[in-house]
Specification:
By secondary structure, the chain is an all-alpha fold. The chain contains 2 helices and no strands.
């Protein structure tokens, strides 16, 4: 695992914790699901 990927993983966890503290977990989860769905759709379109 490279340093860059470790930093990204750490920041993703940090942002999850921050979202829990601020009560914005629903928004974050929704955006993540939407992003994964649109990514899969685009992958199928340009395959």
């Amino acid at each position: 695992m490279s340093l860059k990927s470790k930093i990204y993983k750490f920041l993703r966890i940090w942002n999850d914790v921050d979202a829990v503290r601020k009560g914005r977990v629903g928004k974050r989860v929704g955006r993540r699901v939407a992003g994964k769905g649109s990514g899969k759709l685009l992958r199928k379109l340009f395959k």
